[in-house]
Specification:
- The chain has 70 residues and is mostly beta strands.
- The protein has one domain.
- The chain has strands spanning 2-8, 13-19, 21-33, 41-50, 56-61, 65-68.
- The relative contact order is 0.33.
């Protein structure tokens, strides 16, 4: 999988691309309180990838994440 994420900034954006094999996808809650969220917590989509060199990468997915099969 290839995941490209962008962080919007005042001037342009910061772009990062990670490639690897999917280890796990999950929705998990943060420790932060969020009104009207499930269990009164903020839930995030999280993807765990294993890169070719063995590094494990944890990604928080959002509306700026682009996921592609490679």
């Amino acid at each position: 999988m290839r995941v490209t994420q962008q962080v919007p900034r005042r001037q342009g954006h910061l772009k990062t691309t990670i490639e690897g094999s999917v280890v796990r996808y999950e929705q998990s809650k943060t420790g932060s309180w969020y009104a009207h969220g499930k269990d009164d917590k903020l839930w995030l989509d999280r993807l765990v990838l294993r890169r070719d060199d063995g590094e494990i990468v944890h990604l928080n997915l959002d509306q700026y994440s682009l996921i592609e099969a490679v």
